Amino acid sequence: MSQRSNGPYQLIYWPQIPGRGEFIRLALEEAGADYTDTAHEKDGINTVLALIDKNYEGDQSGPPPFAPPILKHGDLRISQTPNILLYLAPRLGLTPDGDAIYQVNSLALTALDGLSDETHDTHHPIASELYYEDQLEESKRRSESYRKNRLPKFLSYFERVLKPQAALGRPWLYGTTLTYADLVLFQGIDGLKFAFPRALSRLEKSGEYANVFKLYEAVKNRPRIKEYLASDRRQKYSLGIYRHYPELDDAE
């Protein structure tokens, strides 16, 4: 018998970096959910390492996850950021009822593609196992293309999604209330502000993406999100997806 309805959620993720786990934390925090986070537990990293160990073959909770983030809820264990968000959203009230969840999920996936996955590739364009310094010149070329082409393309898309919403007095990507897609877009923009502060300042000042940045501020000032961002639960950016290398940003 399933025991998912009772007990807290457990987020299993690396310590010391927001990383991909942050998209899930924001959903849990916005909903005021009861959850634990291995990133803040002594020896929590051992929980992560045990689940991705090459000798671990899974158990009744599920097959072995490839990598964190991992969510444990009752007798269920799942992985992959968008999969976890898709599971959590209806339980946390962060998506409309019915098939609309798939519209919201499309928006969240697009934000994860362009503002997370592609961002990571700006500082590791050749191979994840290589040091940044070993692919510095390639990183400069990739970052220039991202800042000038890919990032504006994604921001333009979200501005296009938001324009008819704004005309109805709605700051959100879909429907009348905040969804998890808004949280994903917020985190993508926030991480980019850390990684490329000069580029993001230029793009914001251009006025071409006004509704995107209005959404960012609207999420940032929601009571639970505001409290979370000011708390010790919010980890500082460092060597995760969003890294600040001045040489990859716009010239001063």
TrEMBL record:
Task: Outline the extent of the GST N-terminal domain.
Answer: 8-96
Entry's PROSITE patterns?
A: GST_CTER (PS50405), GST_NTER (PS50404)
* GO molecular function terms noted in the UniProt entry: glutathione transferase activity
Q: Which InterPro entries match?
A: Glutathione-S-Trfase_C-like, Glutathione-S-Trfase_C_sf, Glutathione_S-Trfase_N, GST_C, GST_superfamily, Thioredoxin-like_sf
Q: Which residues form the GST C-terminal domain?
A: 105-239
Q: Which GO terms describe its biological process?
A: glutathione metabolic process
What is the residue range of the signal peptide feature? none
Name by which UniProt lists this protein: Putative glutathione S-transferase family protein
